[in-house]
Amino acid sequence: MPLLRRASLCLPILLFALGTIPASAQKKFEVVSIRENPLHGGPQSYGPTPDGYRSVNLPLAIPILTAYVMADSGTAFSPANIVGTQNLFSLGRYDIDARISDADRTAWQDPKQQPEMLREMLQAMLTDRFHLRVHREMKHQDIFLLQVAKGTPKLKETKPDEPHPGAIALPGGGRVGPSTDNAFHFYDMPMSAFATTVASWAGRPVHDDTGLAGNYDFTFANPSFPANTTASDAAADAGPSIFTVLAAFGLKLEPAKGDVETLVIDHIEKPVAN
Prior knowledge:
Oligomer: single chain
């Protein structure tokens, strides 16, 4: 997915313990099937199922973004907050079909327990099958604050019952729909999730500072990736800059400094055979 293809990831570095669970106590999927998918242009989907988790034709960035959340806020990492994502895309795309045990079924079907169970089980799967090792760092660095510009924001609130065929859920909230018009179609996005998405094109982490509590739909042309991250860099390539895109919604990016939690990928391999 284009929104995951860039990662541009200064107080001294503070190492965070991952808070890992002892292997004997960690919940795991009972059965896991992982196969490389050569059809990069085919359908994509992912997410929890009634009896486990399924991901189709997607890079490892998706299960990793689902498995690990920021310790300080519980929100999803953005590509700008992950170091080492180039390895994720060089490993190809995969179809993952994971099933829970009968003993875990009652807890899995509880909406309050499932998100944490899914993260725990995905972490175990990524460790066992991809030999993934990660650690967390906290950095004080350049960020952007997503803010409302002068006037009233021009946003479309999500209609809860409106269908969006083919849209898939994003790890940080909201959904992204299929595109045939070189545009992005996002639905049901809380502003914290939209800020995470915007970071893909801003070139640095973005924190939500809008004060908006609703969920919104966004459609915009595929933005350019500026060579650097200052607002004076107008887009010189095919797409509009992210600053131009946000201005159309009555939003802006304000440069700032902030503490940013970063997920560092120390090691990852192609999966062991089923």
